[in-house]
Amino acid sequence: PSPGALDVTIMYKGRTVLQKVVGHPSCMFLYGPPDPAVRATDPQQVAFPSPAELPDQKQLRYTEELLRHVAPGLQLELRGPQLWARRMGKCKVYWEVGGPPGSASPSTPACLLPRNCDTPIFDFRVFFR
């Protein structure tokens, strides 16, 4: 993606269900239909896909329940060389920095994203060192 764009991949049970390039420096992850009254200055909306194709019905119910509690959303925003996140729903969200390609373990431990608090989760200056 170009500078100021975000390359988004959503996976369920290790399978990619959505790949999208967000043309804004900010996006809002939602579950359900996007808001048609969004202004051009608002974060670009990205809808979590339905988990209906998950083969395990128990996993499908758990995933749907979690996604319902994402509302009113999870926002990611590029601010200069940093990526910030803000969790607004009651569903707990954890983040971690992935390891190098082919690695089975992340580079950082999973961290809980606080609710209604802008949190820096990645600094590209560290990545490009």
UniProtKB/TrEMBL annotation:
Molecular function via GO: DNA-binding transcription factor activity, RNA polymerase II-specific; RNA polymerase II cis-regulatory region sequence-specific DNA binding
GO cellular component: nucleus
Matches recorded under InterPro entries: Interferon_reg_factor-3, SMAD-like_dom_sf, SMAD_FHA_dom_sf
SUPFAM superfamilies (alphabetical): SMAD/FHA domain
GO BP term, pick one: immune system process
Every Interferon regulatory factor-3 domain range: 3-129
Entry-linked Gene3D superfamilies: 2.60.200.10
Pfam family, one: IRF-3
PANTHER family reported in the protein's UniProt record: INTERFERON REGULATORY FACTOR, INTERFERON REGULATORY FACTOR 7
Protein name per the record: Interferon regulatory factor 7
Gene source species: Cercocebus atys
Lineage of producing organism: Eukaryota, Metazoa, Chordata, Craniata, Vertebrata
Gene name tied to this protein: IRF7
